[in-house]
Design a protein that fits this description.
Blueprint lengths: L5 E6 L3 H12 L4 E5 L5 H6 L1 H19 L14 H25 L3 E4 L2 E5 L2 E4 L2 E10 L3 E3 L13 H4 L8 E5 L3 H13 L2 E6 L10 H13 L3 E4 L3 E7 L2 E6 L4 E4 L1 E4 L3 E3 L32 E3 L10 H16 L13 E3 L5 E5 L2 H8 L2 E8 L4 H4 L5 E8 L5 E7 L3 H13 L4 H6 L19 E2 L1
Parallel strand pairs: 1-2, 1-6, 2-3, 6-16, 8-9, 8-14, 9-10
Antiparallel strand pairs: 4-5, 5-6, 7-15, 11-12, 12-13, 17-18, 18-21, 19-20, 19-22, 20-21
Helix pairs in contact: 1-8, 3-6
């Protein structure tokens, strides 16, 4: 290894890359990290963190309204987009500095610029070249906008946080969690939101009951949901943009946000110079050690096409560093990884969907519950919480839990621990609930909704 400048050269300072770099350096490796945009990657800068801050901001409008029936006599104050946007920028800058300090603390070199692979052990950043025993690609994903007439007028999640002017009329195209979350955010902030999705129901991959419940609840909030529809073109119009739709109708908007998927951020990486195999989906193919078909080059996180979740990238970064530099046979366990969608109300999910459970286990029992959150018995808001347990009938093990309602993500974290531990329905039933909470419903659902 002494013949190389570094033991590890990481391309990309997002969650997975920084975690791998820090841990490798902690094991004594000489590490460099190259980043051409911002420290912390998508999550910190244009993903999880700013999104959650904007979700908090958007929920105040409901809180002001709900407070009246609790005795708070106040009118809804005005919303100032610039204040939220600029305070968000301040917080992100603080986090960028923390990431820099984390790498500096383990004496990892941070190199500003887009890295390109020259050969199996050489990386170029601008005019400089660096050699490394191992190269790790952790460049994440990038929003994808399909090509169509006027597609240049669309914005993505990269730009939406920092718009100069608040869009009074916003069209969101897409049906994944990013599209659904931004619909809730801008609806709550006061925008007139229309969400367009080409399929019959959004949130593909989630449990079917959750998808249907989400469509009902989100529509109640005022988001105009339009399914089985496409945008044919976008063109400038007086005071905004005009969209021509596949059903022959048209829409006017101040901004059009495309959240139609992300692709691996591999442009300009120089992969043609090495033997790194790419899948038909444009992702880097790796083995269980995150090694590509080029033995000295590794990849992890969103570029490999796995679960596009920050905690997964973090876990992969740890596993990579422990195996390659810590001498530990460590692998990521991808079973029962929880996730949340911060729509309004929010979704929490862990384990198998009903369709997946039927396919894997055959005979299952289902437990479902729908109820009005306690808060809204006084606020008057028309909102329903939905919960679902999926049980493998042969073993009584709970193999899937899904929820839409207040604090679903917070609740699901604890449920995920139980599922990873192999908890049975009998254990759920003998667990004492915390009263009065929504979460106690998970341990009080006694009668199956159905079983087969």
């Amino acid at each position: 290894m002494d013949n190389f400048d570094y033991d590890l050269f990481v391309i990309g300072a997002g969650s997975g890359g920084v975690r791998a770099a820090r841990m490798a350096a902690g094991f004594g490796a000489r590490v460099a990290v190259a980043e051409d945009r911002y420290m912390g990657g998508t999550c910190v800068n244009v993903g999880c963190v700013p999104k959650k801050l904007y979700v908090y901001a958007s929920e105040y409008s409901k809180a002001f309204s709900d407070a009246r029936n609790f005795g708070w006599d106040s009118s809804k104050p005005a919303f100032d987009w610039a204040t939220l946007r600029d305070n968000k920028k301040t917080e992100i800058s603080r986090l960028n500095a923390i990431y820099n300090n984390l790498l500096a603390g383990v004496k990892a070199d941070v190199i500003d610029g887009r890295a390109s692979i020259v050969d199996a052990h050489t990386v170029a950043v601008g005019e400089r070249q660096f050699t490394a025993d191992k190269i790790l690609i952790a460049t994440g994903g990038w929003p994808h906008v399909p090509s169509f007439p006027g597609s240049e007028y669309a914005i993505t999640s990269n730009e939406v946080f920092d718009l100069e002017h608040f869009p009074e009329r916003l069209v969101i195209v897409g049906g994944g969690y990013i599209a659904v979350e931004f619909a809730g955010i801008f609806n709550g902030l006061g925008s007139q939101v229309t969400q367009i999705y080409r399929g019959p129901l959004f949130l593909r991959g989630f449990d079917s009951d959750i998808r249907a419940h989400a469509a009902r609840e989100i529509a109640k909030t005022g988001v105009d949901l339009r399914f089985e529809l496409n945008v044919e073109s976008i063109s400038p119009a007086a005071g905004g943009l005009q969209l021509q739709l596949s059903d022959g109708s048209s829409l006017e908007a101040d901004a059009v946000l495309y959240a139609t998927g992300r692709k691996p951020n591999l442009e300009g990486l120089g992969l043609a110079n090495v033997e790194v195999a790419i899948s038909e989906f444009g992702t880097i193919i790796v083995d269980e050690e995150f090694r590509t078909s080029e033995p000295s080059i590794f990849a992890l996180g969103d570029v490999t096409g796995g679960m596009e979740l920050t905690p997964v990238a973090l876990a992969e970064g740890m596993a990579f560093a422990r195996r390659q530099f810590g001498g530990a046979e460590y692998a990521v366990d991808y079973d029962f990884i929880p996730t949340a969608v911060f729509c309004q109300p929010s979704i929490g999910s862990v384990g198998f969907t009903e369709d997946e459970a039927r396919a894997k286990f055959g005979h299952i029992r289902l437990f479902k519950s729908t109820f009005k959150p306690m808060k809204h018995t006084i606020s008057g808001r028309d909102e329903q919480t939905f919960m679902k347990l999926i049980v493998d009938k042969a073993t009584d093990r709970v193999v899937g839990v899904h929820m839409m309602g207040p604090d679903a993500g917070e609740i699901m974290q604890g449920i995920a621990i139980a599922l990873r531990a192999g908890a049975t329905k009998a254990l759920f039933d003998t667990t004492i609930g915390i009263h009065p909470t929504a979460a106690e419903e998970f341990v009080t659902m006694r009668e199956p909704w159905t079983e087969d």
